[in-house]
Amino acid sequence: MNLANNLDLDLTQPEALQRLRDHLKTCRLCLEAGYQILPRAIYSGPQTARVMLIGQAPGITEYEVGRPFNAGSGTRLFQWLAEAGIEEEWFRATQYMTSITKCYPGRAKSGSGDRVPSRIEQALCRPHLDAERLLVNPELILPVGRLAITLFYPPQVRLDEVIGTQKKVGDSWVVPLPHPSGASRWHQSEKNRQLVRQAVELIAGHYRRIFPEMSAGQAKVN
Ligand code: SF4
Q1: In the chain, fewer beta carbons within 10 Å around the N or the C end?
Q2: Which CATH number covers residue 129?
Q3: pLDDT digits over 139-182, tens only?
Q4: pTM of the predicted protein model
Q5: pLDDT band at 72, cuts 50/70/90?
Q6: Phi-psi region of 94 (alpha: psi -120 to 50; beta: other; left: phi over 0)
Q7: Which of 118, 125, 132, 147 to mutate to test the pocket of ligand 1 (most atoms within 8 A of CB)?
Q8: Full DSSP string of 113-133
Q9: Per residue in 168-178, pLDDT tens?
Q10: How far apart (Å, rounded) are the C-alpha atoms in residues 179 and 144?
Q11: Which residue, by CA, sits nearest to atom 6 of ligand 1?
Q12: Quick one: 60 exposed, middle or buried, by C-beta within 10 A (0-12, 13-18, 19+)?
């Protein structure tokens, strides 16, 4: 992938991630394209991260507080990761969290939940995500929710076909997770909870492999 032209960013330079962050602070591409987003790119983590978590887009509390998966969804997400032995504070400080579009997209017209970013917004923000992936080069990618999952799987794939499985994409292992929102019923059925447990076991295995010093004796799946 050569993204340098899209972003006017030389990804080989040591300050490239900082330049990307500077660019994201002022990015208004979706507003200029007519979408009523609240511009504030939400993501976190250092270039040294070895795990990258990719969500759909920030919600309003993520926008207000300025950190990914801040609210109820984050609570459930980090419960799942805790079952893999991963501690939230450590993960937030040392691993990378981002999303397909990085600004709050606003409420859905139906009034139910947040608006799913349009294909145009996804395309406008894609070079940022691709640059993050190239710069961080994570060993493990956790796409969270259908939209992020379809970065790596066909668009019509069913969640029960991929949750609890993994695949290698380039240098990275990919382990999908469902969206942890309380509004989602998918992860609440017993059958699907078992698939989430399988995904957690896969994540625990990668955690032990990538961070043997951190995870010794910790990983436990209920
Ligand atoms: S969502 Fe992405 S492309 Fe759109 S304005 Fe925010 S940073 Fe820019």
Answers
A1: C
A2: 3.40.470.10
A3: 999 999 999 999 999 999 999 999 999 999 999 999 999 999 87
A4: 0.93
A5: confident
A6: alpha
A7: 125
A8: SBPPPPHHHHHHHHHHHHHHH
A9: 999 999 999 99
A10: 5
A11: 103
A12: middle
Tell whether ligand 1 has an atom less than 6 A from the beta carbon of residue 81: no
Identify the domain containing residue 56 by its residue range: 15-215
Is the C-beta atom of 204 inside 6 A of ligand 1?
no
- 53 within domain boundaries: yes
Q: Total domain count for the chain? A: 1
Q: Kindly provide the b/e burial profile for residues 95-121, where b requires at least 16 CB atoms within 10 angstroms of the residue's own CB.
A: bbbbbbbbbbbbeeeeeeebbbbeeeb
**How many angstroms from the chain centroid is the CA of residue 124?**
17
Please determine, for residue 91, whether its predicted confidence score (pLDDT) is greater than 70: yes
Distance CA 177, CA 171 (A): 19
**Helix or strand run (H / E) with residue 91:** helix 88-94
- Which atom, in ligand 1's list, is nearest to the CA of 125? 3
Q: Is the CB of 103 under 6 A from ligand 1?
A: yes
d(CA 150, CA 157): 8
User: Which residue type occupies 126?
Assistant: R
| Ligand 1 binding pocket includes 41 (Cβ within 6 Å) | yes
The response to whether residue 193 sits with its C-beta less than 6 Å from ligand 1 reads no
Please identify which residue in the block is written with the tokens 């923000």.
125
